[in-house]
Each structure stands twice: as C-alpha cells, then as structure tokens.
Amino acid sequence: MITTLLKHEWMRTRGLVGAVAAAATLAVAVGTGLAFTELPVLSQLGSALALVVLVALLPLAQIALAFDFWRSSFRRTGYFTHSLPIRGGTIFWTKLLWGAIVTVGLLVLNVLLVALFWAAFGPVLDLSRNFFADISTVFELMPASFTTAMILMVVLSGFGWLAQLYFAATLGSGRALGRFGIGGPVIVYVAMYMI
Residue 16: which of 56, 52, 66 has the closest Cα? Predict the structure, then answer.
C-alpha cells in the first residue's frame, strides 16, 4: 500500500516539484551567464540572483510540499485522502517519506547547480572553475569523521525541517486550530519555533 501511496504522491506533486526544479535551474543558469559577462553591474546582479536561488531552493520547495500536504490532507480535497481504507498514520508517514525523497533529489540538484555557478564564481575567489575539485581539496584537509558529520547534518537538517512543517500542518488542522485555515499550521509552527 505504501508503494501505491508513493506512486500517487509522485503523480500528484510531480508538476509542483518539476516547476520548482526547472525555475531554480533556469534562474541559476541565467545568473551564471550574467556572472560570466564580467560586466560591473550585470555580473554582480547575476551572482546575487544565483546565490539567492541556491540558498532558497530547498526551503521554498519544502514549504511548497508542506502546503500541498496541508491542502491535500486537510482542506477541500482532503476527504479523498481520508476516505482511503488506510490508517492516518500510514498516510502521514508515506507523505513524509515522499517529501524526504524529494528533499534528497533537490539536494543533489542543488549541488549540481552550485557546480554550475562555481564555474563563474570560483575564479572570483582565486579558485578553479571545477567545484568538485575544490571541494575535494577542502575535504582532504578535514578528518573523515568531520566530513561525514557535516554531510549528515545538512541532510538531517533538511529532513528535520520538513518533518516540523508536516507536523505543524497536521496539528494546526485539528479541532482547536483548524477553524483558522492556514493560520492554524502557522500558529503551531511559530509556537514550535519559540519553544
């Protein structure tokens, strides 16, 4: 049943995920192209555009997935989800698993986009145009345990934030806060942040 739910999530969200990935790729490509021009204003504008997109890609995609989770589970079309003969917990964990799979895919895309941007930005820092060569040099200077811990921290941070967003959407749509619409999950997320 989980594979069927995952397939349904893929079919339902592929347009959203594809649009986010395509927009990010296009923006980084344009920013990199502008950075390659080395014209005073255009180069800096392109670098800023690419950097903003690279930093914002994963958080914006996860917010979009969490909003889609909230909408498809607790809003007008949510009755389709809850009419399935499956426990709510199974649906929640499957949707969270799908969000984690998308997160891994977007992390890989983000690394590739950083490598693309690095071709224009690396020489500004007196480094090569090859991101992977430069990062492997940095990793050689650090102990393997530190490198592993750093990679795990990045991946688990992405999963942790996604889980917080899904939890806030679920708890904020309960009886007490559900009447506030999207405000319920926002209230729960702000309360979690403050705690």
Answer: 66
Q: What is the pLDDT of residues 19-36, one digit of tens each?
A: 999 999 999 999 999 888
Integer CA distances (angstroms), 94 to 9, 97, 108, 174, in order: 9, 5, 21, 20
CA distance 33 to 17: 24
Positive or negative, the Cα torsion across 108, 72, 185, 174? negative
CB within 8 Å of 191: residues ≥ 6 apart: none
Residue 2, C-beta contacts closer than 8 angstroms, at least 6 positions apart: 90, 94, 97
Burial class (CB in 10 A: 0-12, 13-18, 19+), 144: exposed
The answer to whether the beta carbons of residues 39 and 21 sit under 8 Å apart is: no
pLDDT tens for 36-93 read 887 888 888 988 999 999 999 999 999 999 999 888 888 766 656 666 667 777 888 8
Tokens linked to 169? 């959407």
